[in-house]
């Protein structure tokens, strides 16, 4: 397996993170692009067409996150199981399952604290008055007292993982599903460590059929279950083919899979009946899913899974995803996901609506109207600045915040395992030369 810092799966995760941000920018500024056309008789805009619409749509990117979760959390246990190292597989599952919660929860708590602090210092004041419905819905009041502010922080920190909602950052609603998806992986791996690979493939098939017919509410089956299972399936293929995976299929086939998958992943979020291609897809999926299923999540899953399989079997696609640019995008993908909504409600909103805020529009009665955004050029400049600041801060997060969270998780897990905590003995009065010779106890 390639080193983590040069792994194609991280590059894919980086693309998914970027797509989520672009999708939310679309929802905030040009939500009509989520439809394939304004109505069945109107010609579509360029970015409403298949393939082009992926640049402003982030729903399929969420499916990619779940696919990656299933892949990376199962690849180690599967490898040890196939090698007959059952004790090592059980130990790895136990350690990963315990640490996974901290790796997700601690950074999310920091991000929630950041958006809470901004809300309670009135940094979101402008969002209450903008003409963007999505940004305006993200407004949170400044709590009247310090006590109420801390209570609201505690509520947000807890409910992110209990009911799946965070009053300060609604985009965190998927995080409890990622944690649940990880536990699904660990449970499945624990149950199948001792079985032969063919039996595990059968287990994947049964789980896949179960989640396909689940289709309840937000289609948790299609959003979480199907993608997690497919991720485990691809991890199984990785351990089966090893380094020969990219030579299994003739070169055109993986490329064709990626192209077809990208088309499917472009299934529109809104009004699929407004274009013939998406209306046909809608009717097909309704005919093979349960009643009232969210067919969008099923197409997101199928499209993202097809792209993942195409990349898995393609040497060229892997080479692209391990390039420095995509390596960087993958390296900062989680903090980008955690912070982007906060930056949309602050940096982006401030830049776009500042001219209007300096001279607020009012009606005939003197009542303030919604702030109006600047020109198209102004918006493009604002978005460019937003992206730069977001990714710059995400890089700083990885450098400074992630190590602290990782150390806290390691300390907690070592305490739980009863392992000794390493300490460095230093003389109270020491110089540079003596300190270099001191070793940890």
Please explain how this structure is put together.
This protein is mostly helical. It contains 16 helices and no strands. The chain has one domain (4-328). Helix 2 (59-82) runs antiparallel to helix 3, helix 2 (59-82) crosses helix 11 (295-312) and helix 8 packs parallel to helix 11. The longest helix is centred in the C-terminal third of the chain and has 42 residues, at 376-417. Mean pLDDT is 90; it is low at 1-6 and 425-441. Keywords: Membrane, Transmembrane, Transmembrane helix. Residues 7-354 form the Acyltransferase domain.
How big is the Rg? 24 Å
Alpha-carbon distance between the two ends: 33 Å
Number of domains: 1
Order of helices and strands: HHHHHHHHHHHHHHHH
> How much beta, percentage-wise?
under 5%
Count of helical segments?
A: 16
What number is the mean pLDDT?
90
Coarse morphology: globular
* Major sheet summary line: none
Global structural class: mainly alpha
Query: Into which percent range does the helicity of residues fall?
Result: 55-70%
What is the strand tally? 0
Poorly predicted ranges: 1-6, 425-441
